[in-house]
TrEMBL record:
Residues 13-324 form the Enoyl reductase (ER) domain. The lineage of its organism: Bacteria, Pseudomonadati, Pseudomonadota, Betaproteobacteria, Burkholderiales. PROSITE patterns: QOR_ZETA_CRYSTAL. The keyword Magnesium does not apply. CDD domains: QOR2. Its EC number is 1.6.5.5. It comes from Massilia cellulosiltytica. This is NADPH:quinone reductase. InterPro entries: ADH-like_C, ADH-like_N, ER, GroES-like_sf, NAD(P)-bd_dom_sf, QOR-like, Quin_OxRdtase/zeta-crystal_CS. It is an enzyme of class 1 (oxidoreductase).
Length: 326
């Protein structure tokens, strides 16, 4: 057994429930690998597990994303070996740790050209953008789309990737500073929802046509406005709940707006197999290595300060990506 530092929580609640503790890490079993994290990604979904919105058996660890080096592998593991640079974005939770034993199947090889910090910062959000823009609704050159929280970690990747694909992305943000950042990263139009009427601005930008797809990670506060921005038979992609979960609604809300579609996708569903995960990661690595998409790491915290990272994230005081350094 090896002793390592990790974040654990024994009850749900605010950031104060996170504890920085010593844990015992053993050898990997069949199908497992022991990975020493060099950087760890912080994502809004982590706050859902911590708060209890997404239930977990307690006590438990936190975090689904990281990058590091394989130290040992268990029986049957052949696609990675000790010394390999790897990255991952997958359950189970436990990435907020210096060292962990985890399923080897979720590990992908991290190219030498991509640093551990970038690897940890790009996997969950980058793979999310990959399935959103390439699979949930395969965007087309010249298309105009609406993407909420455009200055967040997912949003800034989406702004750049959409531009690379020839797509006109309308991004919503909550401040003028965030608006400038989204424009810099490729948003064709930016709406500050604190000062502007989102639906009215989308109508103006599209000359009344509205958009074929809305990507919404905000949830409760934006849901109705998102529906109102869609063309008949448009697709509402609800992939997060940063303002709270979407309340129950009548299906007739979709009918009255023109036979709308709605989906609630997850990365776990799109990257359900190693083949799917590897293909999505290769697409992501290619667009980052090409320089068309850069990964904005704007906040770095020591692993011990994970609670402070959550306070900043939930207070909407962050832009781009937040990472923890073990």
């Amino acid at each position: 057994m090896t002793t390592a530092k990790a974040i654990r929580f024994a009850r749900t609640g605010g950031p104060e429930v996170l504890e920085y503790v010593d844990v015992e890490v053993g050898d990997p079993g069949p199908g497992e690998a022991r990975v020493r994290n060099h950087a760890i990604g912080v994502n809004f979904i982590d706050t859902y597990f911590r708060s209890g919105l997404y239930p977990l058996d307690l006590p438990n660890g936190l975090g689904q994303e990281g990058a590091g080096v394989v130290e040992a592998v268990g029986e049957g593991v052949t696609h990675v070996r000790p010394g390999d640079r790897v990255a991952y974005a997958a359950r189970p939770n436990g990435a907020y740790s210096q060292l962990r034993v985890m399923p080897a199947d979720v590990l992908v090889h991290l190219p030498d050209a991509i640093s551990f910090e970038t690897g940890a910062a790009m996997m969950l959000q980058g793979l999310t953008v990959q399935y959103l823009l390439k699979q949930t609704h395969a965007v087309q050159p010249g298309e105009t789309i609406l993407f909420h929280a455009a200055a967040g970690g997912v949003g800034l990747i989406a702004c750049q990737w959409a531009r690379a694909l020839g797509v006109n992305l309308i991004g919503t943000v909550g401040s003028n500073e965030k608006a400038a950042l989204a424009r810099q990263r490729g948003a064709a139009h930016v709406i500050n929802y604190r000062d502007e009427d989102v639906v009215q601005r989308v109508l103006e930008i599209t000359n009344g046509a509205k958009v074929p797809v809305v990507y919404d990670s905000v949830g409760k506060d934006m849901f109705t406005r998102s529906l109102d921005c869609l063309q008949p038979r448009g697709l509402m992609v609800s992939f997060g709940n940063s303002s709270g979960p979407v309340p129950p609604f009548a299906l007739n809300e979709l009918a009255s707006r023109g036979s709308l579609y709605i989906t609630r996708p997850t990365l776990q569903s799109y990257a359900a197999t190693r083949a799917q995960r590897d293909a999505m990661a290769a697409d992501l690595f290619d667009v980052v290595a090409s320089g068309k998409v850069s990964i904005d790491i704007h906040q770095r915290f020591p692993l011990a300060d994970a609670a402070q990272a959550h306070i900043a994230l939930e207070g909407r005081r962050t832009t781009g990506k937040t990472i923890l350094l073990p």
